[in-house]
TrEMBL record:
The chain crosses the membrane at residues 63-82, 108-125, 145-164, 171-192, 212-233, 293-315, 345-368, 389-407, 413-437, 449-472. This is Mn2+/Fe2+ NRAMP family transporter. Residues 1-11 have a biased composition (Basic and acidic residues). Keywords: Membrane, Transmembrane, Transmembrane helix. Residues 1-25 are annotated as: Disordered. The keyword Cell membrane does not apply.
C-alpha cells in the first residue's frame, strides 16, 4: 500500500508504510454523564505522586522555604499540555502515541519502550515504601520488605480482571489517603509562619539554583507530577477508559482471570470530518482537557504545595535534612514531637502506601507501553495476545528488581544519572514528534494549534537542555 504522508486539507493523513491503513468509523458520542469516565488524569496524578512529592519538593522547602513552588506549577502545566497532545492523537484514532510514532519511523516505539525500562529498572519506589514501613514498625530489613512488595505488585497486576479498573481503584484510595493527610496537617501541623511563607512565595518567588544546584532545581521543574514514559501512557489509559475512538479498542485484561479479549490486531480508526463528527470531537476535546486539569493538574499541584508546607512547618532550616529517603524519618519523628505520636505514624503509613501504589503504577505503565508497542508493531499476526505480553513483561520487571535487591546493591549514582537523562531525553524527543504527528496526520480542524505548538517548543528545548546539562553536571562529580 502506498505511503500516505502528505497533508490533505480536512482529511486524516496517517502514514501507511510501516502499519496498515486505519478503518473509518464515526467518532463515538461522549457519554451523557461524563463524570462516569473521569479517571485517567487521576491515575496519572496518583502514579506520579511519588518521591518527588514526598521527598524532593518537601526537601527543597525545608532548605529554601516555599519561594520555589512556582516551579512545580510550571512543570505540571507543561506536562498537562504534553498529555493533551498525546491524548489528541488517541482520541482521534484509537491508536496510542507510540503506534502513531511507529507510523513515521519503524522503531520509534521500541526506542521509547527501551528508554522507559532504563528509567524504571531500579525498584526505588518499592524500597522507599519499604523504608517507611520500617519507620512505622520500628525495624525490619527494607530489602526483604521491598521484595515482598514487588511480588505482591506482580500478583495484583496479573490477577486483576481488567488491569486499568484495578489501578484506578488503587490510586483512588491513595489520593483519598493523601487528602486525609492534607486536611489533618492543615488542622494540627501547619502554623502561621508557613502561611506567611506561602504568601512570600507568591509575592517574592525565587530561583534557588545557587543554594540547591542548577540540576536539582531544573529536575524538580521538569519532573513535577510525571515525566518520561508516564506521560506517554496517557494514551493507553484513556483508551482503556473508552475515550473517543479508544472505545473501539479492546481493554487490557488478565490472561488468568480476565474477560475474553477481542481481536487486538485491528488497525487504528479515523472518522470523516463532517459537521456531526466534528461536533462530537469538540465535546470530547473539551471534556478531555477539563478532566486532565481537574485531576492531574489540580491533584498534583495541591499535593506538592501541602506536602511542602508540611515540611516547611516542621523542618525548615534543619541542617540534618538530606535529599534521601531518610528525610521522611526525620519529618515523621518531628511530627510526633510537634503534634503527637499518632500523626507521625499516620504520616509514615500514608507515605508507605502512596509509594507502594506509585510502584504498582510504574510497573504497570512500563509493561503496558511495551506490550502495546510489541503487539502493534512486531507481533500483529501472532496468536500471542497483548495481555500475555503484558503478563511476561510485568514479571520480568519484578524479577529484575528482586535480583537487584538480592545482590545487595544500593542505588548507584550511574542509575540516578541514567534515570534522569533518559526521562529528559524521552520528553525532548517526543515533544518534537507530537508536534510533527499532530500537525500532519490529523485533519486541519482538529490539529494542534499555534499556541499549543509554542508550549511543545518550550518543552522540546527545556527537556533537551536538562538532559544534556544533568549528564554533564553528574559526570563532573564522578
Amino acid at each position: 500500500m502506498a505511503d500516505t504522508t502528505s497533508t490533505d486539507h480536512g482529511r486524516f493523513a496517517l502514514p501507511t508504510k510501516n502499519l496498515p491503513a486505519p478503518q473509518v468509523r464515526d467518532l463515538p458520542e461522549p457519554p451523557a454523564k461524563t463524570w462516569k469516565i473521569i479517571g485517567p488524569g487521576m491515575v496519572g496524578a496518583g502514579v506520579g505522586l511519588a518521591s518527588g512529592e514526598f521527598i524532593l519538593w518537601p526537601y527543597i522547602s525545608s532548605q529554601v522555604g516555599l519561594v520555589f513552588l512556582w516551579g512545580a506549577v510550571v512543570g505540571v502545566v507543561v506536562q498537562w499540555f504534553l498529555n493533551m497532545e498525546i491524548e489528541r492523537y488517541t482520541l482521534a484514532t484509537g491508536e496510542t502515541a507510540l503506534t502513531g510514532f511507529n507510523r513515521y519511523g519503524k522503531h520509534w516505539g521500541l526506542f521509547f519502550a527501551i528508554m522507559t525500562y532504563f528509567a524504571n529498572l531500579w525498584p526505588g519506589w518499592a524500597t522507599s515504601s519499604a523504608s517507611m514501613l520500617t519507620y512505622l514498625f520500628g525495624g525490619g530489613d527494607p530489602r526483604w520488605i521491598a521484595i515482598g512488595m514487588l511480588l505482591l505488585i506482580g500478583a495484583i497486576l496479573t490477577f486483576a480482571p481488567v488491569v486499568y479498573v484495578m489501578l484506578e481503584r488503587l490510586i483512588a484510595v491513595k489520593i483519598a489517603a493523601v487528602a486525609l493527610l492534607v486536611v489533618l496537617a492543615l488542622i494540627f501541623a501547619i502554623r502561621g509562619k508557613t502561611y506567611g511563607a506561602l504568601g512570600d512565595a507568591v509575592t517574592h518567588p525565587q530561583f534557588p539554583a545557587d543554594q540547591l544546584g542548577f540540576a536539582l532545581v531544573m529536575g524538580a521543574i521538569a519532573y513535577a507530577g510525571a515525566g518520561g514514559g508516564q506521560n506517554l501512557v496517557q494514551s493507553n489509559w484513556i483508551r482503556d477508559k473508552g475515550f473517543g475512538q479508544g472505545l473501539h479498542v479492546p481493554r487490557l485484561t488478565s490472561p488468568v482471570t480476565g474477560e475474553t479479549e477481542a481481536d487486538p490486531t485491528a488497525n487504528g480508526y479515523t472518522f470523516t470530518p463532517d459537521d456531526a463528527n466534528l461536533a462530537r470531537w469538540r465535546r470530547w476535546w473539551k471534556f478531555a482537557n477539563i478532566e486532565q486539569a481537574a485531576t492531574f493538574v489540580a491533584i498534583t499541584v495541591i499535593t506538592i504545595v501541602f506536602t511542602s508546607m508540611l515540611a516547611h512547618a516542621t523542618l525548615f532550616g534543619n541542617p540534618d535534612v538530606k535529599n534521601s529517603i531518610g528525610f521522611l524519618k526525620i519529618e515523621g519523628t518531628t511530627l510526633q514531637t510537634v503534634v503527637g505520636g499518632w500523626f507521625g505514624y499516620l504520616f509514615w503509613a500514608i507515605g508507605a502506601f502512596s509509594l507502594f501504589a506509585a510502584a504498582a503504577g510504574i510497573v504497570d505503565y512500563t509493561s503496558r507501553l511495551s506490550s502495546d508497542m510489541i503487539k502493534a508493531r512486531y507481533l500483529r499476526e501472532s496468536k500471542i495476545t497483548e495481555s500475555k505480553l503484558y503478563f511476561w513483561l510485568v514479571w520480568g520487571l519484578v524479577a529484575f528488581g528482586i535480583i537487584v535487591l538480592l545482590a545487595g546493591l544500593t542505588q548507584p549514582l550511574v542509575l540516578l544519572v541514567i534515570s534522569a537523562c533518559t526521562a529528559g531525553t524521552m520528553m525532548f524527543v517526543y515533544s518534537g514528534l507530537l508536534w510533527w504527528m499532530n500537525s500532519r496526520a490529523l485533519p486541519r480542524a482538529i490539529r494542534i494549534t499555534p499556541w499549543r505548538t509554542a508550549v511543545l517548543g518550550f518543552s522540546f528545548l527545556a527537556f533537551g537542555f536538562l538532559a544534556v546539562f544533568t549528564l554533564i553536571d553528574q559526570l563532573k562529580k564522578l
